[in-house]
């Protein structure tokens, strides 16, 4: 049984950079900030295979990101996936509004519409996997936690 001495994880945990900056850096040591390579910029035009609705969503989000100065440092794939999934989700919700949530199965009994399941899958894919914690309340990665914190301040 260890009772003192140097071991991994022992000692006081370091303060976060944000807390040091808020307190005026009392230790007067230089604060080490992370620098990201922001050489890549998100393309302004969406891919050709997108539907018109997905292209509109892509352009609107890109315009918003440009307005707040966040067009670099984000993978283009993330924006493409978001626009694609949101467009499909909207299409499924429109079908649900047109045809209702119940349909007749082969024997004439009521059954849930397949568009309900598809809409929930697209919603889960673009919402839960990209910016929110898992349904049990535990974020799945550091990226997700960072996005959740940003989401509280930006939206």
What kind of sheet is the major sheet? 2 strands, antiparallel
**Which shape, going by the Cα principal axes?**
elongated
Total strands: the figure is 2
List SSEs in N-to-C order. HHHEEHH
Helix content: 40-55%
Would you identify the regions where 5 or more consecutive residues have pLDDT less than 50? 131-140, 148-155
Percentage of residues in DSSP E strands: under 5%
> Between the first and last Cα atoms, what is the distance in angstroms?
50 Å
- Helix/strand-derived category reads mainly alpha
- Strand order across the largest sheet: 1-2
Q: Average pLDDT value?
A: 77
Short description:
With 155 residues, the protein is mainly alpha-helical.
How would you characterize this protein structure?
It is a single chain. The chain is mainly alpha-helical. 48% of the residues lie in helices and 4% in strands. It is built from 5 helices and 2 strands, in the order H-H-H-E-E-H-H. The protein has helices spanning 17-22, 52-68, 76-99, 114-128, 142-154, and strands spanning 102-104, 110-112. A two-stranded antiparallel ribbon has the order 1-2. Helix 3 runs antiparallel to helix 4 (114-128). It is elongated and about 75 Å long.
Relevant terms:
155 residues; mainly alpha; two-stranded antiparallel ribbon; elongated; disordered C terminus
SSE arrangement:
Layout: H1 17-22, H2 52-68, H3 76-99, E1 102-104, E2 110-112, H4 114-128, H5 142-154
Antiparallel strand pairs: 1-2
Helix pairs in contact: 2-3, 3-4
């Amino acid at each position: 049984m260890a009772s003192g001495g140097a071991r991994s994880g022992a000692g006081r945990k370091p303060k976060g950079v944000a807390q040091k900056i808020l307190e005026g850096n009392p230790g007067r040591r230089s604060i080490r900030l992370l620098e990201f390579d922001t050489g890549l910029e998100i393309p302004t035009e969406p891919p050709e295979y997108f539907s018109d609705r997905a292209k509109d969503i892509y352009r609107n989000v890109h315009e918003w990101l440009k307005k707040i100065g966040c067009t670099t440092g984000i993978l283009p794939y993330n924006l493409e996936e978001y626009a694609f999934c949101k467009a499909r989700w909207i299409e499924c919700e429109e079908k649900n509004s047109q045809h209702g949530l119940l349909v007749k199965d082969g024997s004439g009994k009521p059954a849930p519409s397949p568009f309900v399941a598809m809409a929930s899958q697209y919603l889960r894919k673009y919402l839960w996997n990209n910016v929110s914690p898992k349904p049990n309340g535990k974020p799945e990665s550091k990226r997700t936690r960072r996005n959740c914190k940003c989401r509280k301040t930006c939206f």
